[in-house]
């Protein structure tokens, strides 16, 4: 009886290890860098593909990009991953707000990200309409490029 219980224990442990390894293998981790004028920002991007029970997730420096509070909502709408490209769609909306005595209208923000896995080139297309972002960055389409390389083993 002990021998059978031991075998069941080993089998369950092995299955859990395989499942954990498979799940970890699906996660993609990148070291990214954004340069704008004389400002450089390094950050880590973690992409967790969707499973049967959970939607795909993106984390920047361990901060979940799916956010919602009284000021607005940001949602990762889709992540498409293939051998050479990762495509990401993020949508955000913001409530009207007053900051330092200035009133800003409600606004929306749409981000399309294309990461070429072969070159590390990340192209970002952002569409801004209204809100504090529209007032400060300008309404319309904004394009930028960053670099993202697969993270080294930690």
TrEMBL record:
<protein>
    <recommendedName>
        <fullName>Auto-transporter adhesin head GIN domain-containing protein</fullName>
    </recommendedName>
</protein>
<feature type="signal peptide">
    <location>
        <begin position="1"/>
        <end position="24"/>
    </location>
</feature>
<keyword id="KW-0732">Signal</keyword>
């Amino acid at each position: 009886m002990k021998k059978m219980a031991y075998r069941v224990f080993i089998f369950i442990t092995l299955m859990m290890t395989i499942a954990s390894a498979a799940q970890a293998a699906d996660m993609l981790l990148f070291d990214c860098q954004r340069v704008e004028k004389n400002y450089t920002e390094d950050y880590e991007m973690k992409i967790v593909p969707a499973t049967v029970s959970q939607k795909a997730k993106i984390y920047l420096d361990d901060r979940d990009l799916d956010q919602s509070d009284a000021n607005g909502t940001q949602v990762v709408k889709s992540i498409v991953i293939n051998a050479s490209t990762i495509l990401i769609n993020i949508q955000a909306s913001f409530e009207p707000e007053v900051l330092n005595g200035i009133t800003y209208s409600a606004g929306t923000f749409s981000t399309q990200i294309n990461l070429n896995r072969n070159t590390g080139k990340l192209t970002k297309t952002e569409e801004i309409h209204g809100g504090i972002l529209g007032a400060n960055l300008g309404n319309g389409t904004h394009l930028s490029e960053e670099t993202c390389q697969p993270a080294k083993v930690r």
